[in-house]
Fold each of these.
Amino acid sequence: MAHRIAERSLAGAPTLHMLCGKVAAGKSTLAARLAAAPATILISEDAWMPCLYRDELQTVADYGKYSRRLREAMGPHVAMLLKAGLSVVLDFPANTIVNRQWMRGIFEAAGVEHRLHLLDLSDAACRQRLRRRNADGAHAFTVSDAEFDLLTSYFVRPSAAEGFETIVYGEAELGS
């Protein structure tokens, strides 16, 4: 059901798609699927960060610093793409209230629809996926258990009071 709703929203008006979920929940996999729709582009933090800041990214604190810089540059660009009639799948983690406020500013400035895709997996499922991802070596970043714990400590589940059009995906939709 969640998948049909998401795909239907891609067919109409320009939409900003945002992804919220813990490390290794499957945000980038879902983002790629959503971005396969016509007139839709994918902008991935994981693609940009190592290109721009490869040598600087050593710690979670470094990630926070350079991610803020990338958001500052990308926000107006994403709004322009939306205003031009394209839908955008923004594969940046919408995992904190601050990040979601930044994303809200983008779709409000562009005057377009939005969808917040919440990948609701347990820590255990995310850790299992993370271990597989680390072993595969295909992802730009390797995340340790300690880094997973630190990053998860910042995760704030979106509340209804934030007012996002939210589509929730559970373990049944995402697999393990």
Note: The chain is about 55% helix and 15% strand.
Amino acid sequence: MITRVYRSMALWLALAAVLISAAMAVATYFFEIARVDQAIVELAVGEARTFRNMDHDLLVRAMVNGGGVSEDEVGQRLQHFLETREVNAEGHFVVAELYDAGRRPLGEAVQQPAGLTPESRLSVPHRFPDGESPWYDKVMVDARLYIRVVVPLRDQQARSLGYFEGVYHVADSRIASIRARLETTVLLVVGVVLCTTLFLVPVIIGVNRAQWSLSLRLMRANIETLEVLGDAIAKRDGDTGAHNYRVTLFAIRLGEAVGLPAERIRGLIKGAFLHDVGKIGIRDAILLKPGKLTAEEFAEMQGHVAHGVDIVSRGSWLHDAADVVLYHHEKFNGSGYLKGLSGDEIPVTARIFAIADVFDALISRRPYKEPLPFDDALAIISEGAGSHFDPVLVAAFQRIARSLYDTVAGQEDQRVERMLLDLTDTYFRVVAV
């Protein structure tokens, strides 16, 4: 059980690590792409401002003074700029165009790569920025990255000189460097997440193992409390705890035989231990009376059912024991007490327990009787089918009664107790998980 739980935990942690790694990788990828975009745009803007510094006089004459420079001269200066900057290892402009402050074109130059021109290969129309920040757009042409940028140009007195538009080719070596850094960053993030998960797995398993052990000890303590309380009531009633052990064993096995769910069997176990707990509220004069009870005394004895329900209802862990405690004296034909329920109105755990309780009473030695042989006891149970007992449950009990009797009858109390504890642990360990 523990190994299966830890294996499941490890699988869930591995899945969580993969999902977190994927999410972090995607987030890191887009974060790095944004950083790369910014870095590349800054390169392009820096190159545009280099042109401004190189040809400041031309710009002043062409843009501020309103003329005196032909379109051919502007184009030649732009062409010269493209050719001299082509050696830049980071990248260079392949298209350059100037606009005056009124956004009218003054000239252009193209260091044409495979037919790339501002008109033919860049489908998105450019925009002139209103403030200081440049406008840019990315485009892939023939598996190469280009940045189209429009940069406002100003002189040292912050006068508007116009606009520089360019198509900046990012060098292949720069792209390779960016890609390598991006891959390294993503792998680093994924590695950190996975290493953290690997570190946390033994820590979490260790903590869970401690919690598991504590849960089992607490559950064992709860079961022992049920045993002690059941034994105390049995002794007050002139019996021993062995009755509780046997009847609980019988009830569990019958519940298993009819396919009762594990959560209902847990309630059946609690109810079997505490079925007579309400007798603590019955006077000794009635509880220990050797002879037959009067009608008034029997009515008071019936009150132990209500006392028992009141006791178990005070603890949330015992709520599922209430069905057995309250209804174990009901009969299938409706002649029982306290409610006079019949048939399926009686909870199934109470119907199961009724068979186990009566069968154990028949095969056990009591101060007022000797134990009945197995066949006689089973015959009485069979005769009660349809009246005292659920006939379907009686049929199931008939199939397992012989093996139960051979296993339990005549055994020492300590051995029966050990058998019961081993059996109950299989149910309450599931809860502890």
Note: The radius of gyration is 45 Å.
Amino acid sequence: MRRLTVTAIAVLTIGGMLSAGCANGEMSEEDVERVVADIVSANSAVDTVTFDLTMNGNIDVAETDDVSQIAIVAEGRGIVDSAAEQMYMALTMNYLIPGEDTSEIPVEYYFTDGWMYINMEVPGQGGQWMKMQMPAEMWDQQNQVAQQVDMLMTADEVNFLGMEDVNGVKCYVVEIVPALETVRETMSQMKGQMSQFGGVDLSQMDLGSMMTEMSVTQYISAETYLFMRTDQHIVMEITPEALGIPASSFDRITEDLTTNVVFSDYGKPVTIQLPQGALAATEMG
């Protein structure tokens, strides 16, 4: 039950400025505001993009007189078609538990026609297709580029850190202090879209209260103002009460995750085709 709970949470909670006018590597507040406006404009006009994602972190499950530690390593690749409001991501998650064999869990996500389809390889049960209907306003939460634009626009603070090359592209490096309450509100909106998953009623999750820390660094092309890379670090504290399950299940789960996303192939033609097997997906909710 514990491992399945942790897996279910991880699967559903997984899923970028010019030196002119700057002195000593700094930017004035006016410069930052101008460049942020250019970044928002450039990325809002993007129709298609490909991204590669890596995730590393630790999950600590605290129980009475015991703490179980699980390391998580994940790699994935995805495509976003904003014009068609479609998204695809294939992700392989590896859970490393001391003294046990590594658990490898491939997961596929499709967002199309207002539905999120998830295909997860459950150990001992094979692949299982699930789907949930997503309201129109949830699209931007699935769109990797739109997520970055939204964080930049609603940030409590934006700091220019300097310049750095990403895959040969000269980039501005921007540190964002996210508006944590906005992030929490966005996550809480997902609660209504969750139902029975992995044997746990995730619709009871109070996602908004789980986020305790978040930091974001964006790398933005100095020429095109498009996101080249983002690094994100989050810490979540999960209690049985937040999940709506008995307190005897565990004391607390702490997730400490760092995610890196590299963007490429802006504006290139893409095809996202829902597999035949997804048509028989079990509806969640």
Note: The longest helix spans residues 29-44.
